[in-house]
Amino acid sequence: METNFASRKNRILAFLLDYLILTIIIVLPIIFFMMNEKNMESALSFSFFAVWLMIGFILYILKDSIKGASIGKWVIGIGIRDEENLERVPSILRLFLRNLLIIIWPIEFLILAANKDKQRLGDRLAHTVVVKVTEVSVWRKIFAIVSLTLISILLFISTILFTIKNTDAYETAITYIEGSEEIIQEAGGIEGYGFIPSGSVQINNGYGESLFTINIKGKEKDVKVRIYLTKTPKSDWKVQEAHYE
User: Fold this and answer.
1) Chain centroid, CA 182 distance in Å
2) What is the pLDDT of residues 56-90, one digit of tens each?
3) What Pfam families does this protein map onto (predicted)?
């Protein structure tokens, strides 16, 4: 009986789904960390990055530990099995060894493309194969890809917005706007602010620069304020320029 190996296309698709999921898990906390000015000024920032990246690497290595299938493989309907017994799921140690070689993924993909049994180096090291476990429709694959992509985009945008609005620089900008009689008069009073502010916060060795574009919802008319702030080590943010239209 011929072994029903998972196609290279499905394996690459599962890999991309796993990569997307792990990117969300790893990148979003880093964004939160970087947008906190006190963290970026701390000597522990490098340690945080190193530890969090190591956690992400370990998560990737152990991603197939549940029944030989990661989330991506489960969505696509494929799984890892012992090459001598296709009913047996390899041990966690063998799955660990298999994924360890993903650090040389360009070579792994080349070997996967050339190997007749569709094994990469990690498979050959752990004596495993990837097989089709369940039949999955094309629509399920498309739905999974589109859903994960949209969720990733929404999470990324939400994280950026949340972190920007919680920086000391942004709070200083809002305080300045609410204390500016000129801007308040132009808007006829402030009712609120736009949901999506644009801007950036950059800090290096305690010196910082921030530039925001903040939309004000005024009682008489809406006003767009562009505001530039700076800071020096051990000091608060200060507004240097502010223009509105």
Assistant:
1) 41
2) 888 888 899 889 999 889 989 999 999 889 889 99
3) RDD
